[in-house]
Amino acid sequence: MVPLRFVTGDGPILQHRIEIGFVMKEKLLLGVDVGSTKIAVVLWSRVGVRLGSARWETLPALEANLERIRSEARRLLEAQAGPLGAIGISGGGPVDPRRGVILTIPNLRGWENVEIARRLSEELGAPARLENDANACALAEWRYGAGRGVDDLAFLTFSTGIGAGLILDGRLYRGHRFLAGEVGHQTIVPGGEPCGCGRRGCLEAYASGAGIARRLAALRAADPSLPATARELTERARAGDTFSAAFLKETARYLARGLSSLIFLINPARIILGTIAVGAGDLVLEPLREELRDLVWPSLLEGLEVVPAALGPELGDQAARAVAEETLCPGS
């Protein structure tokens, strides 16, 4: 019920309560998670209720994927009969967020300079925003997960490589060329193991999923009875295997070298770790915290929390949702 007040330029001359009954349709959010192996489209309510979704293995042809995104989005919207408020796109490759362009996606031919935000905005009739997946995941953990309640945090991904999304002073920080957060390419072992970037001794070469697999493979060449995967490594460590526990502790030592530089640079209130910390928990987190106490000033560690990501398997979907929400309510 809406009270209306009639006024003239000199002030109120008539006041009357008029009751108007109407129902405003809630604006919906569309999240699109684009990766080299899969694509997901999820429709959300403004309060975070999942209203419908579709996902598929990434098709070989660019246009086939874009048409599938459009058709699935329209199907989901028709089922809800609500207005679309914003589109959030999480891109698994180098992106230009200001222009809404996916510059390239590794291992996918044809995904070069794709104006995905403009195209989806025009075709679906709502503003669209694009972020790389590390930044999108940082937004999601900040809004809905382990980052709630702080304005300065770093979220680190651990897969083939290591990347970070940064929230500073309550805003996503991208850097001059949108490359902020490349923490995986700090040199932590001068002249050390080769990294996929072409340099040597990067954090990524030691503590990423691929780096851990490479280190294990080198040791298994001499002893095939050793764990073959990070999951097996964690399971054996939990069961009391001394080699596995020592390997995870060594991984934490490498990781601490990279995180110490990050802490000195941005003084975060919270560091959120994906994958490795979620899977191994305190097997990595406790030795990591201990190493940081030796590497970082106590004043910088005061109040700092190093925690695992909270959103689990939902993180990719929630990341695209967070980008859509950021389009409507930046920094909220």
Outline of the structure:
The protein is α/β, with parallel strands linked by helices. It has helices at residues 62-80, 116-124, 133-144, 204-207, 209-220, 230-238, 242-266, 276-280, 282-295, 298-301, 315-328, and strands at 4-8, 11-16, 28-34, 38-44, 50-57, 84-91, 95-96, 101-104, 112-114, 128-132, 153-158, 162-168, 171-173, 270-273, 305-308. The strands form 4 sheets. It has a 5-stranded mixed beta sheet with strand order 5-4-3-6-10.
CATH superfamily of the largest domain: ATPase, nucleotide binding domain
Instruction: Calculate Rg over CA atoms.
Output: 23 Å
User: What is the CATH architecture descriptor of the largest domain?
Assistant: 2-Layer Sandwich
**Proportion of strand residues:** 15-25%
Number of contiguous helices:
11
The share of residues in helices is 25-40%
Let me know the number of strands.
Answer: 15
Description:
38% of the residues lie in helices and 24% in strands. It is an alpha/beta fold. The chain folds into two domains: 28-137 and 315-328, ATPase, nucleotide binding domain (Nucleotidyltransferase, domain 5, 2-Layer Sandwich); 148-310, Nucleotidyltransferase, domain 5 (2-Layer Sandwich). It has a five-stranded mixed β-sheet. Strands 13-12-11-14-15 form a five-stranded mixed β-sheet. Helix 3 packs across helix 11 (315-328) and helix 6 (230-238) packs across helix 7. It starts with a strand and ends with a helix.
